[in-house]
Amino acid sequence: MELDLSTRKQEFLTGALDTFPLLLGAAPFGLIYGALAVTSGLSPEAAIAMSVFVFAGSSQFVALGLVAAKAPVLIIILTTFIVNLRHMLYSATLLPYLKGLPQKWRIPLAFWLTDETFAVTVYRFQKNDASPFRHWFQLGSSIAMYLNWQLWCFLGLVLGDRIPDASRWGFDVAMPVTFIAMTIPFVRNIPIAVAVLAAGASSLMTLGLSYKLGILVSAFIGIFAGMIAERNRPKPGKEIQT
C-alpha cells in the first residue's frame, strides 16, 4: 500500500513537472483574458465563473467577443461548442488508455482536458511500461494547468485597468509557438509528418472561416492525409514496385 501511494505521487508530480514549460505559454493568455473581460461587459464574478467552469482558453476569448457584440446566448453557446469540438478527437485518442477507469475518474479528467495536458499525457501513455497509475500523471498535468489558468485570469481581472491595450502586446505569438513545441516530439515517421503539414497548410487556408471552424476542418484534413500516407507507406521487407 505504501508503495502504491509513492507511485501515485510520483506520477502526479511528474505530470505537473512535465507540464511546467507549457504553463508559461498559457500564462499571458490568462492575463489577457482577465484584462479583456473587464472591458467586454462581463462582471468580475461572471468572468471568474467562466474561467472556473468553462476552462477553455480559445472558447473564453470567442465568448468575450460575442458578449461584447451583444450576441444572443444561443449563438455564444453554439459557437463555443464548435470551437471545442477538437476535444472529441483528444478524448477518442485517450479512451483506450482510460476506458478501464470508473466514471468518478473519467468525468473530471475529461473536464480538465486541455491541449497542453493532452500533449504531455498521450506522450506518457504511449511509453511501454506496466504502471497502473498513469492516469495520475494526467491528473497532475490537469491540476497544474487548471490552477495556473485560474491564477493568471484572476491577475488579469485585478490588474486589467493597469494593462494598456493588452491584446496588442504580441502575446498572440506564444500560443502557436507552444503548439509547435508540443507537436514536434510526435513527428516520428512520414505519415505523421504528412498529417502535420497537411493540417498546418489547411489551417492557414481556412483561417478566415467563422466560428473557428478552420480548426476542426484542418484536424480532419490532417487525419485523412495521414491515413492515406500510412496506407501507401511501403511495409518493412516489401519491395516497392516500379
Distance between the termini: 61 Å
The geometry reads as: globular
The ordered H/E elements are HHHHHHHHHHH
Strand content: under 5%
Poorly predicted ranges: none
Counting DSSP E segments of at least 2 residues, the number of strands comes to: 0
Structure classification: mainly alpha
- Mean pLDDT metric: 83
How many separate helices?
A: 11
Helical residues, percent: over 70%
Radius of gyration: 20 Å
Describe the sheet with the most strands: none
Keywords:
mainly alpha, 0% strand, single chain, 242 residues
Describe this structure in words.
The protein is mostly helical and 242 residues long. The protein has 11 helices and no strands. It is globular. The chain starts with a helix and ends in an 11-residue tail after the last helix.
Summarize the structure.
The protein is mainly α and 242 residues long. It contains 11 helices and no strands.
Summarize the helices and strands and which ones pair or pack.
Layout: H1 2-40, H2 44-53, H3 57-68, H4 73-83, H5 86-98, H6 103-111, H7 115-125, H8 134-159, H9 174-183, H10 190-205, H11 213-231
